Amino acid sequence: MQEISSQDNGRLKAFAALCREKRERDRNGSVILDGVKICRDAVSSGHRVRQLWITEEAQEKYSRDIPELITASDEVFVIKGSAARKLSELVTPQGVFAEVERPAWTEPAELASGSRILGLCGVQNPENVGSSIRTAAALGYSAVLLSSDCADVWSPRTVRAAAGTQLSCRIASTRDFAGSVRELANAGVLTCASALHSDSVYVSDVPRDRKIFLAVGSEGSGLPDDVTEACEIRIRIPMSGSAESLNAAAAAAVMMWELRDESLLK
Amino acid sequence: MQEISSQDNGRLKAFAALCREKRERDRNGSVILDGVKICRDAVSSGHRVRQLWITEEAQEKYSRDIPELITASDEVFVIKGSAARKLSELVTPQGVFAEVERPAWTEPAELASGSRILGLCGVQNPENVGSSIRTAAALGYSAVLLSSDCADVWSPRTVRAAAGTQLSCRIASTRDFAGSVRELANAGVLTCASALHSDSVYVSDVPRDRKIFLAVGSEGSGLPDDVTEACEIRIRIPMSGSAESLNAAAAAAVMMWELRDESLLK
After folding, report:
1. What is the H or E stretch that residue A75 is in?
2. Which structural domain range is residue A64 located in?
């Protein structure tokens, strides 16, 4: 355990760069966890912590949780004073930060092993991406396919919104989302596009006798045409008025719930 | 129409205070709308704009939308240069801002006139409050009851997350949430508490033969005990594992959808 009190310390600067710069995280294959619960959940599910950073205040405040985190960490740093402010985007961070190894991407071809798969195409808001991954994990969706123009799934904002569930979910990324949809269809999966088209069927009328892939687009522009066309059916949520709409993460949650595999939930 | 180019202009300073300070908004009974779509939606649904502020760039970029906004506004200000930066919390604001009059609160006793009512108790995150109001509006919930310790429903963050739907939804606020629940129960409404208790019934098993009130608590601590006890039944969403959980707004969306009044949706 090393104590660090200077903002100019080299290790602190290097860790702050990991927290703040996508390029650094990508180069090191890192996920940064910010907060005691998210760190504890990662450790409980078997993730090794490369480096753990805790403030003196957090060491005292979370004294019940810290020993388990320390045991699971290769290196531990205790930060004194205000040096922790460099590490978090939050106004009032808890003062507990961990770097864990990023899980390998899942190949799009391997997605069809589970009975329910979520796809996010062009969803650029990190909170919507993170919240949708969290909902997928909670509702028994075994994998999430992301188009390469979605928000960075490993950014601190996305990790926070997902409550770290991208560490335990299978995540695939593709530059050819429509091509991946066709592969899933070829594997016998019912591919559904969330779309406000006039020929869209109500989400409650979708048959449940096959595996299901649900594609959701961005809130502003929806799914690209080639993705909507690659999907076998277009589905929508009935609403109370034509001017009404749902937030992307709320719409994804309602659809994932309605299309759930009940045998997986309890 | 007045052109303003100085950051020191008195009207600009007064409007910036409205945008940034809850106390100013409360004193003036104001709602600040930030963005062209949210302003347009408010005007389309009949709201009068007290003052409209647009940047020179926005005037050009949104030239199709601006005339309708100007017609609905008592006063119009065009801002030149960087003076607009004082008005928005956003990194890249669109440069279209409107002050509209805050609708009157609905009395808690009047909530039972609709068939579906949402209650948020102690939800302190403005995005969760806003997103839940938006979902309620889209899924035919006629009113929303907020405990007085919820996030400020009229803050720019909450208004943005709700896409301005709090202007058209009936909103009630109470210091005695459990008391309001009992009043609804006395009026014949089935009162449901979202709770992860062992005796909670699955949300899909809730009977639909009466009006329904759904109470949702904060993500961290759930509903207070007195509210859970005041409700007739406790309900929960089945999930894939005991460690999994949903974001408060996603959980509220799934429950609102599952408890919807189908006759109101199309």
Report:
1. strand A73-79
2. 2-101
Please give the sequence-ordered ranges of beta strands (E in DSSP) within A195-238, or none if there are none.
Answer: 201-202, 212-216, 233-236
Chain B nearest C-alpha distance from A248 (Å):
10
Residues A70 and A92 in one domain: yes
Do B185 and B207 belong to one domain? yes
* Tens-digit pLDDT profile for residues B119-172: 999 999 999 999 999 999 999 999 999 999 999 999 999 999 999 999 989 999
Q: What is the chain A residue with the closest CA to B41?
A: A243
Task: List the A30-34 sheet strands across, edge first.
Answer: A2-4, A73-79, A49-55, A96-101, A30-34
Q: What is the mean pLDDT of chain B?
A: 93
Q: Are residues A43 and A132 in the same domain?
A: no
Q: Which residues contact A180 (CB under 8 A, 6 or more apart)?
A: A108, A111, A119, A145, A172, A174
The verdict on B91 and B115 lying in the same domain is no
User: What would the pLDDT profile of A95-134 be if each residue is shown by its tens digit?
Assistant: 999 999 999 999 988 999 899 999 999 999 999 999 999 9
B137 with B63, same domain: the answer is no
- Give pTM, 2 decimals: 0.93
Give B5→chain A minimum CA distance, Å: 32
Residues on chain A touching B266 (C-beta within 8 angstroms): 238-240
Domain at B121, CATH number: 3.40.1280.10
For the stretch A137-166, pLDDT in tens is 999 999 999 999 999 999 999 999 999 999
Are A103 and B103 spatial neighbours (Cβ–Cβ below 8 Å)? no
Minimum-distance CB partner of B264 among A137, A240, A264: A240
Of the residues A101, A127, A144, which one is the last residue of a structural domain? A101
Number of domains within chain A: 2
Where does the pLDDT of residue B85 fall: very low under 50, low under 70, confident under 90, or very high at 90 and above? confident
C-alpha–C-alpha distance, residues A232 and B119, integer Å: 38
Average pLDDT over residues B198-204: 90
Residues A77 and A9 in one domain: yes
Of B43, B67, B101, the residue at which a domain comes to its end is B101
CB-CB: which of A140, A243, A250 is closest to B253? A250
Q: Are A131 and B249 a contacting pair at CB < 8 A?
A: yes
